[in-house]
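INFO batch 0412 | record 1 of 1 | parsing
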Amino acid sequence: MAHNIGFIGTGMMASALIDGIIAKGVRTPNQVWCSDIWGPSRDAAAAKGYNATDKNADVCANSDDAVFIAVKPNCIMGACKDIADGSDTGAVIVSIAAGVTLETLEKALPGRRVVRVMPNTPCLVGESACGFAMGSLATEEDKTLVKSLLDAVGVSVEVKEDLLNAVTGVSGSGPAYVFQFIEALSDGGVRAGLPRNVATMLAAQTVKGAAEMVLKTGTHPGQLKDQVTSPGGTTIAGVEALEKGGFRATAISAVTAATKRSMQLGGASDEEIANKYGL
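INFO prediction complete | emitting tokens
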């Protein structure tokens, strides 16, 4: 077996995944097949040594490990048709299209093994947080393969499909919340007299460092917060201001709002969302 992987669509997310997989040595450039209707995208892929084509059928015929569907949701059925009509090399089909359910994918790809993934944009810098759900025909070997590919650009966790909406709310949309928080910290620094570039660097590095402490120590974030907040000190004064502004409740509301919107985009009614999930 060649252990080739394919990508239908070579947009930002797909390119980041491919580049990360290559950078980690999980695959070599000649083991990657990708298709795109846009010439400049194909040229960029070919320049990196990937096998680039404008035909989805070529990707299907030459990818024996996995084929990633990395197109916009409104193009997903066309991509599925090309896969269904093309060669079946035994590759698992991995969809990163938002809001497209496993049931929809499996109906469009009868008999094929399918995995659904929710990645996020930090995969561009090798720090993605991905959730994935296995289809009804997917195997343990498929799970091992998909996880190894996703872990090349960050970390991945398996969840039940109905929790992928919550994954969207936390990590799929989460980078935007964190960017806003970094911007707000930077604004605060500027308000206190720091130059903008200094304030932004300090804010971004502080968020990065705090995140690393959570991940590497395994300590509860609340406990880490308490370790910084001396009685009557500067930090507790800042924490009080955040609480007065509803920081914690607003962050929770952001996650639940994004989760609910993900459900809506997947076709769930507001009544179903309220009754089944309490959102």
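INFO post-check: Residues 217 and 224 are 10 Å apart (CA to CA).
INFO record closed
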